[in-house]
Amino acid sequence: MATNIERSAAISSAKTKHSRSLWSQLWKYRALYLISIPGIVYFLIFRYIPLFGSVIAFQNYNIFKGITGSPWVGFANFEKMFNYHDFSRILTNNIVLALYDIIFVFPAAIILALLLNELRIVLYKRIVQTIVYMPHFLSWVVISGIAVSVFSPETGLVNSVIAKLGFEPIYFLGDNNLIRPFLVGAGMWRDVGYSTIIYLAAMASISPDLYEAAQIDGANRFKQTLTITLPALMPTITILFLLQIGQILDFGFERVWVFLNSLNSGNGEILDTFIYRVGILDMQYSYTTAIGLFKSVVGLILLWLCNTLSKKTTGESLF
Amino acid sequence: MNKLSRSAKVFQLFNILFLGLLALSMLLPILHVLAKSLSGVQALTNSEVGLLPVDFTLLNYQYVLSNPAILRAFAVTIYITVVGTIINLVMTSSLAYPLSREEYKGRKIFLVMVLLTMIFPAPLIPLFILVKELDMMNSLWSLMIPGAISAFNFFVMRSFFQQIPKELIEASRIDGCGELRILWNIIVPLSKPVMATVGLFYAVVHWNTYMHALYFINEPRLYPLQVKLRQMLLLDQVETGNEMFSDLLSAPEGIQMATVIVAMIPIIAVYPFLQKYFVKGMMLGSIK
Predict the structure, then answer these.
(1) How far off is chain A from B249, nearest CA to CA, in Å?
(2) Of B34, B32, B41, B45, which Cα lies nearest the Cα of B258?
(3) Can you say how many angstroms the Cα of residue A308 is from the centroid of all Cα atoms in its chain?
(4) For chain B, which residues make up each domain, given as ranges?
(5) Which residues cross the membrane (chain A) (predicted)?
(6) Cα–Cα distance for residue pair A267/A104, rounded to 1 Å
(7) Among A309, B58, B67, B75, whose Cα sits 20 to 30 Å from the Cα of B139?
């Protein structure tokens, strides 16, 4: 009994000592804590409140009543979403576009990085890199202006070439069948160069000894690429691939919105542009929040699935 | 390097040609736009313009630079780029610096808090409602505050601060410097490179801001440049009060393309500086 009391007294004194030192630590570096407050408050307000604000997906949100006053409706908004006759069309557009991105744009960046890596003329390599990185920094509005001008049926560069070859001009942005390749192509034009940076950096860290050894063994450049470069890139490729899978429904609002018109929205409309049209322009806040939530949940599930799969098969994973 | 085999030589040649063509595919469209912006109305309506201007004229640019609505949009964009970037840098560094120091107990919680926002971005409609509730709709603050700190740039800055030798900080503490003085006299002067990098990243985002303006700004007098440009590209017509520009009415494309070029020039101008840094920045950020 007595020893028990002694022991607990010893513990509590150690505790106070510990907490006292914590307080003195906090006090000593109070300036550090003080200047971190605005940033923390920012994240709480502008990143976490909207995240928790997603609960309005389960309400019939009324802007005058607010979150606390609006009635709860369970999954009604999700039901409405799945019952909307156009929903499957928009979701399909979104998924098909994302798959095109994964099938065409994703490998294109890897191939371009490999090709850039093979260039031996340093100055030429630098010039090419400078040019292909640049479109990434142009806004989608500017790119749409460039695209409209280049692909315009009457005055565009492409159609004047087509006309010279003796074919009918093509109205690229007015054709429902062409909008998907167009959107994917535009994304490729803008980002394929920039996406190579991370691969090129990974290549630069491969030990040159490996290539020398392979050369002595008589492997040519192509074989070296297959047996050394690509395996060394695999971790990077896997991680970027997983990230891309997680963003499968985030095709990019601006990338689509600037090209969308009544002639091509059949195959071009995606969830993000639908959210803007119906959410902001028609003010259906709860409904579109439900769609947004659906988007994130699907992305998260896919990310988790592919991550687990990749962990089992390749040993690489994000988390 | 050893002598190249025949097939390797063929590949090299093919590679040089292919990458050259790829680079051209990125340059030529911009040249085409530039040529159109400098061409006369007649040449534009007859679609004679390829990669060089036909009937060279500066009239399109004179229109753009004298149109009050375009100039206004320009001023708005310059304002949010300058003020917004300053807010970004102050907010990001004032969080990244404390969280880079080991003396900051509990920094792990906050680091996870920032990291999570990369996986769970703020959903747009709830953000829109928040901005509305905060009474920031139709105010330029709505384009600067909600994006004040990007998690990516935060990690770039933090890893830079982490590389500053601890001895330097300890030495100045022995000299009697307080934490704030250490920050102001030692850390800030050392951080110029990372400030420039991250500042340029932020500035480009502000210059190109479009979606947030669609969500948060309804008043035409507050439209940033990208929104105004988009409107001009859609309308396919121009209003002119001035006799001098009445010819342009029949070919608004020249004016549209001149605006595209004008909206692009600042990006092209800072691009060499950007390029110097972004490779490094991406590396820092990906290490985390």
Answers:
(1) 16
(2) B34
(3) 20
(4) 61-287
(5) 31-49, 95-119, 131-151, 192-211, 232-253, 285-305
(6) 18
(7) B67
- Find the farthest-apart pair of alpha carbons in chain B and give their distance in angstroms, rounded: 76
Q: Helices A140-151 and A179-204, interaxial angle, to 10°?
A: 120
Closest CA to A250 of A151, A144, A102, A134: A102
Could you tell me the maximum CA-CA distance found in chain A, to the nearest angstrom?
104
- The answer to whether residue A115 neighbours chain B at the CB level (below 8 Å) is yes
B8 near B15, Cβ under 8 Å?
Answer: no
The closest alpha carbon to B229, from A140, A210, A90, A182, belongs to A140
Neighbouring-strand partners of residue A72: A59
Question: Which residue, A191, A35, A279, is CA-closest to B187?
Answer: A35
- Mutation to test the A interface, candidates B38, B125, B261, most A Cβ within 10 Å: B125
Domain B61-287 grouped into CATH 1.20.1070.10 = no
- Whole-complex ipTM: 0.91
In angstroms, how far is CA B280 from the centroid of its own chain? 17
With an 8 Å Cβ cutoff, are A120 and B12 in contact?
Answer: yes
Whether the CB of A26 is below 8 Å from some CB of chain B: the reply is yes
Task: For CA atoms B69, B71, B75, B81, give the dihedral sign.
Answer: positive
CA atoms within 13 A on the CB side of A141: 26
Q: Give the span between the Cα atoms of B143 and B213, in whole angstroms.
A: 7
Out of A198, A279, A292, the one facing B286 most closely (by C-beta) is A198
Q: Is A19 on the interface with B (CB under 8 A)?
A: no
Specify the fold of A78-313.
MetI-like fold (1.10.3720)
Q: Could you give the angle at which helices A230-246 and A285-313 cross, rounded to 10 degrees?
A: 150
Overall size of chain A counted in residues: 319
DSSP A72: B
CA distance B15 to B12: 5
Q: Which residues pair with A59 in a beta bridge?
A: A72
Residue pair A61/B132 in contact by the 8 Å Cβ criterion: no
Reported as half-sphere exposure (CB side, CA atoms, 13 A), residue B74 has a value of 16
Taking CB atoms and an 8 Å limit, are A51 and B105 in contact across chains?
no
The predicted-structure confidence for A18-63, as pLDDT tens digits, reads as follows 666 778 878 888 888 999 999 999 999 999 999 999 999 999 998 8
Residues 59-98 (A) with a CB less than 8 A from some CB of B: 61, 63, 66
At A229, which amino acid appears? T
Output the tens digit of pLDDT for each of chain B's 288 residues: 456 678 888 999 999 999 999 999 999 999 999 999 999 888 888 888 889 999 999 999 999 999 999 999 999 999 999 999 999 999 999 999 999 998 888 899 999 999 999 888 899 999 999 999 999 999 999 999 999 999 999 999 998 999 888 888 888 888 888 888 888 888 888 888 889 889 999 999 999 999 999 999 999 999 999 999 999 998 765 665 566 676 676 678 899 999 999 999 999 998 888 887 777 666 655 543
DSSP-H helix ranges across chain A: 2-28, 30-42, 49-53, 66-69, 76-83, 87-100, 106-118, 122-133, 140-151, 157-164, 179-204, 208-216, 221-224, 230-246, 253-257, 265-268, 271-274, 285-313
